[in-house]
Amino acid sequence: MLTLIINCGSSSVKLALFERDRSEPVATAMVDRVATDAIEGSYRIGDGPRQALSCPAYGDHAAALDAALSGLRSEPALHDLRVSAVGHRIVHGGQKFSAPALVDPEVLAEIRALAPLAPVHAIPNALGIEAATRLFPGVPQVAVFDTAFHQSIAPEVYRYAIPDDLYERFQIRRYGFHGTSHAYVAEEAARRLGLDFKNCRLISAHLGNGCSATAVLNGESVDTSMGLTPLEGLVMGTRSGNVDPNLHNFLAQQAGLSLDEITDLLNRKSGLTGLSGISNDLRVLTDEYHAGNKSAKLAVDVFCFRLARELAGLTVALGGMPDALIFTGGIGENSCLVRGLTLSHLSAFNFELDPERNKTAGADTNGIISSGSGPTAIVVPTNEEFAIAHATAALCPF
Question: Are 216 and 202 in contact, with CB atoms under 8 Å apart?
Fold first, then answer.
């Protein structure tokens, strides 16, 4: 019996199948460009080669999920695919959900009602649940919320300085995201370092196309960089991160842009892409950086400085210096340039970066890339799908 993990994005569907208590998936699948004529997908059994999926043109999320499952079932090892539980990555849980929840009609309705807070993700997340209900009737489903880990943050940290009635009426506050990843890597880092997870100070930097940083004190999130939406905080692949709140008004008046155009610009045309004018891919920018491209250098330098400034600020919520700083996500796990530049800005922390360890992401030192008596810098690969599978199994113990 297998646990199926579903991650429905705005234009994609990702699947992973797990056996109980196994951290590596039995199989994975992904369908991209959902509801377009360019829809495409692939699947993979274990660590084998990727195989193309047959996807219907303009297929919706349900059709994409069906195509992915059909591809997996075409493999002899999964021909008689039996799923005991389904776990869903749900981006926004609002203020209601501080832990994973068994899906029922009320929970599904709550997820749909959060669409104003997560317009890009809430409806696709709900569609994934509805599609799984049709495909696996009677199989229990669990919603695992990206925001849940951050529900431990105190009001003085999550409240914005806006009129109170706006908070009460519209739930306008800082929520934070990537919670599943931050929780997983923080606990894993504590395990690797021999720390008591319930009695330590950690900072986690999840760096990918989306980026966020979180302060974890005694096993709980106490501050994080993202806010009401995933746009707040760090510079990201295509997202600006923090900007002057009056920028919208300025661009509307001076550039004649609409609110929708400005929002799209800050979400899809800014960040590393906007600064460099080249790409949101850090691998491309790293090559250009070393080749002397000034725009690429500016983009990487801004990215790392802003990251370091955010990491330093998170120590306020920790009440002191961290025992460890964790790098994770595609950039955090693979870019020795970003790790090195970021730590160079944090001289007050007394990190002692080992250049050779950094080059290999601590391959021979359990992820540790620092040395000496200062705080530890460590690279911990994230495994959000396994974390969701683990949470799902906890609510479906059979």
Answer: yes
Average pLDDT over residues 79-103: 94
Which H/E stretch holds residue 285? Answer: helix 282-290
Helix 179-193 / helix 384-395 crossing angle, nearest 10 deg: 100
DSSP string, 332-395: HHH-HHHHHHHHHT-GGGT--B-HHHHHTTTTTTTTB-B-SSS-EEEE----HHHHHHHHHHHH
Q: Which residues are annotated as a binding site for Mg(2+)?
A: 7, 384
Read off the CATH number of the domain in which 59 is found.
Answer: 3.30.420.40
Instruction: Give me the sign of the Cα torsion angle 89, 95, 99, 101.
Output: negative
128, 214: one domain: no
Edge-to-edge order in the sheet of strand 101-102: 51-52, 40-45, 27-32, 12-18, 2-8, 83-90, 141-145, 101-102
Q: pLDDT by residue (tens digit) across 240-275?
A: 999 999 999 999 999 999 999 999 999 989 999 999
Q: What is the identity of the amino acid at 374?
A: G
Q: Which of 88, 99, 65 is nearest to 140 (CA)?
A: 88
- Could you tell me if 220 and 103 lie in one domain? no
Same domain, 330 and 247: yes
Q: Dmax of the chain from CA atoms?
A: 61
- Whether the full predicted model's pTM is greater than 0.70, yes or no, is yes
Q: Could you give the count of Cα atoms lying within 13 Å of 41 in the half-sphere of its Cβ? A: 35
Show which of 145, 168, 183 is a domain's final residue.
Answer: 145
Among 37, 146, 164, 354, the active-site one is 146
For the stretch 297-306, pLDDT in tens is 999 999 999 9
Q: Token digits for 140? A: 């229990």
Within a 10 A sphere around the Cβ of 272, how many other Cβ atoms?
A: 26
- Whether 311 is covered by a domain: the verdict is yes
Domain that holds residue 34: 2-145
Q: Which residues contact 290 (CB under 8 A, 6 or more apart)?
A: none
Cα 294 to Cα 307: distance, rounded to the nearest angstrom: 20
Known active-site residue 146: yes
Contact between 323 and 186 under an 8 Å Cβ cutoff? The reply is no
Any domain includes 129: yes
Contact 174, 309 (CB under 8 A): no
Asked if 227 and 108 sit in the same domain, the reply is no
Question: Could you tell me if residue 211 is inside a domain?
Answer: yes
Number of domains, the chain: 2
Residue 173 lies in a domain: no
